[in-house]
Structures are given as structure tokens and as C-alpha cells.
Amino acid sequence: MDWVKIWTFFFFLSLGLFTALAVIVAIGGFFNIRSLFKDLSEARRGHGPRNDSRAEA
Amino acid sequence: METDFAKLGFSTSFTVLDWCIVVGYLIAVVSIGVYIRKYVASATDFMVAGRGLKTFLAIATMIGTELGLVTVMYSAQKGFTGGFAAFHIAFAAAIVTLFVGVSGFIVVPLRRLNVMTIPEFYEKRFGRDVRILGGAILAFSGILNMGLFLKAASLFVMGVTGLASEIHLKIVMTVLLCMVLLYTTLGGMVSVVVLDYIQFVVLAFGLVIASVLSIRHLGWTNIVETVTREMGDSGFNPFNEAGFGWSYVLWMFFMGLVSCAVWQTAVIRACSAKDTATVRKMYSLSSIGFLIRFLIPYFFGICALVFIANSSSLRSVFLSAEGKADPDLSLRAMPFYLSQILPSGIIGIVTAGMLAAFMSTHDSYLLCWSSVLTQDVVAPWFRKDLSSRVRLLLTRIFILAIGIFILVWGLWFPLRQDLWDYMAISGAIYSIGGFTLLAFGLYWNRASRTGAYLALLSGILALLGLSKVQELCAPMLAPIKARFGIEGDISSAVIGLLVLILAIVLMIAGSLLWPDRERNRYHAEREES
User: Is A45 on the interface with B (CB under 8 A)?
Assistant: First the structure.
């Protein structure tokens, strides 16, 4: 088994995949944050301070 | 151990510009964290971001948390000492995380149960006393595990900046910890996920750029040839017993599973996800992140070895005549290498990313262990449910207390043991028992409270993986070593696997011999559903 070839292929493939993932997550995450803040703001306005302890799901 | 590399003709490329980048970046992220506190209205917002994490943000925060500076440091050390063969650990982590994502193993049923912490599941499944014991073991294990984070970060800063005075370094690290405490205490999980996102972006691109620059500087052929010369087949073949060996590879597959599906800081992300579909997507896509968080630091460690092995003056400092390295020095090899190879400006961005990763891990771990202490160790003692306000206050107090502990333990207290051994053993105290309780508790109806107790307590035997403990238990271990012809220490991987088997056997035996007499809330809910 040629481990040098295996690890070389594995390393460059992983680096490529991660670069692609980083770009996608960077863009998608930005929109997710906007959506999260919107949801939290609406929850705050709609219900006021909550006492939800551990029972809340 | 202080070594002034400038005297050997290796000055760092870290300049005033880089300091400005690092300081400016850190001030910006802390300011954002404090600003975000206005969105926190409840304990659920504080601890699991209102369970509002969508796929991309969940992935960013999961990788942002798990790709910590301490991971980068000990992984680089592994690459430095194990060569390309260390890549198998990254491979195992990715395969196991992908399996969890596709199958939903452990994490999907946990999310369905709407628990915030793993010990909360223990209570639903095995009862309140198992929750308290499990929570205490988890918090103890986790807090000890993060005890050396500051030490790792300080070694990184020393290596990159070329700082010689340790007192200056201690001040810098203390300031960093204070900044982490400030925004974690005020913002909770909402701050954590947003900052994890920012830190993911900076660190992801910083790591990719540093990898490309490393390949350009050293050359791929030179890297492969140097590792071949220094390590031979064991530098590439993970099954070669002169390097890692079969038992180590097997142990790494289990550790990969633990890291993504049992370790509380990762599981809390599953609990924070919007729904179970998001959990599956998050884990499937995060498998690439779990792979990279090991792979790139291993590669940096390998590059550091190549850089050092090809310089006679550095070789004499870092490597012995047999080519072995002192653990403290091998930890410093990667940051030192980055300080030589990266140009000013880029090294500032990478350092800011690394320090951000340190803060990101710190904030998540602080929040995680303080939540466990509040929810699972303190709250169950009270018959009346604690209010959200009291829980928030308790969590913040624990954050401060843990922060003070790790500052004293990790920075001012002189530890004299290997970082990797310390990390693996402190984590295994919890993870072996934790895995057994989760796997059997979720998928085996007959798993009982007695079995859970036995499995949790047996995990503590993982401490035998520490060579110092093996020394103390020498008379007890001598017959076993003689029986199997083992010279020197029994490998920590072998001990880990044996303790895991023991925990599983005890869980099964304890459950069959002492089954639960009454059906609990968990069984009732399952029957209803």
C-alpha cells in the first residue's frame, strides 16, 4: 500500500473541500445570524422577559 | 524552558503591524460580544441561543468551538512526532462524524428529548442521583481538561512573537481570559455563536493561506522526503507498531465518536439546533471541519519538523541524537515555524485567528461547564424549580469561578506533564462512562440505574493511562505486564479500550442483574410517542 500517495491525495482533497465549505458557511452563516437576531428580537417584543428555566423546549 | 531563537539567527517576522492586527481584532470581537447581550432575555437564550441555530451558523459555531488553539497545539505536536501517519486521526474523526450525521446516532434522540445537557438526559433516563453524579464527573473532567488551555496558548504566543519574558506573557494571557469572561458572562450562547462565526471565518481562511504558503516555501517533495528520512515507514503507515499501531488507530476512532457525539461542548450544539434535520445536516457537513481541525495542524507540525530537521542549529535545539523531541519544545515547534515562514501581516491575521480560536474554545467551555454545574449538579438539589434569573446568576458565578481556577491552574501553577496525555486522560474520565450511558440509555430499554452507576464510575479507571499513575500502581500492574510481556508503560490507547470494554460489560451486567423496579418518566414518554 503506497501511503505517500494516499496521504497526498487525502490532504489536497480535504484542503479543497474545506476551502469550499468555508466559503459556503461564511456566506450562509451571515444570513443565519440576521435571521437569529430577527427571531430573538421578535420573541423579546412579543412576550417580554421570560421565565423559562429548564422546562422550556 | 526558555530558548532565545533570535540568538540562533531566527528572528520572528511578527512586527508592530501584527500586534496592531491582533489587538484591534480582539477589541472588535469583545465589543461585538458585549453589544449582543441585549438579545438575551432568558436562560434558554443564554445557554442554547433560544434553540434558534440554523445550519450554516450551527456548523460555524461547532467548528469554531472545536478548532481551538489547544487542539491546534497538541495536533501540531502529534504531526511533529508522528509525521503523516497522524493523518489517520483526522480521517477517523471525519468518518465517525459523518456516520453520526447520517445515522443521527446519539445526537438526534438527544435533540428530540429537548435536553440542554447530557446529565439532564441521565435524569430522564436513570434518575436524579445519576444526573448529579454524571454532572459532577463531567464538570470535573471538563474543567481539568481545559486547565491547560492557557498554558498551550502561552506557548503559542511565545513561539510566534518571540517573547522571552514569561511575566509579560502571563499578563497578556490574563488580559485575554478577562476579555473572554466579560463577553461570555454577559452575552451567553448568543454571543458565543456569533463570535464563533466570526472566528471561524478568520481562522478558516488563515489556515488555508498558511497551508498554501507552507507548501510553496518547503515544497511537497522536500516535505515527503524529509519525513521519509527522519521516520521511515512509521512516518506514513499508522499501523506500523514503531509509530502508532492498531490499538492506537482503534482508540482514535472511539475518540472521534466521543469528540462529536459525547463531549458536552459538541453535543450542546446539537441541543441548540433548530430541529433534528438541522442536527443531521450540521454533523454531516461538520465532518469536514472535524477532519480539518486535526489535518491542517498535523501538516503544520510536519512542516515544522521539515524546517527544523534541515537546519543543523535548530536540529540541535529541538531534536535529540535519536531524532526525538522534548514535549515542551515539540509543542513550541509549530508556532516557531509559523513565525519564520509567514510574512508580516499574514502572521498577524493567523495569530489573531488562533487567539480568537483560543477565546472561542474558552467561552464555549466556560459556558458549557458552568451550565452543567448549574443545571445538573446544583439545581437538582432543590425541590422547587429554580427560576431563570437564579440559574443565570449561578451560571455567571460558575463562569467566574472556573475562570479563576483555570488561570491559577494553567498559567501560574507549574505543571510538569505531557499536554497530550493530560488532555486524553482528563477527557476519558468522563467520556468512557458518558458514551456507555448515552448509547445504552438511548438504544437499550433494559439499561438500568445500577448499570449506569457502574459504567460512570468505571470510567475513572482511565486514569491508569497516565504513566505517573502506572508508577503508583506498579505492584498491581506487574503481573499483567509479566503475563503479556509488556516492557515499560502500558499504552494509554490499550488502557482506554480496556476501560471502555469494562464499562460496557458493567452496564450490561449491572442492568441484567439489578434491573430498575419502576418505570420512569423517560419510559412513559417513549411509550406515549
Answer: no
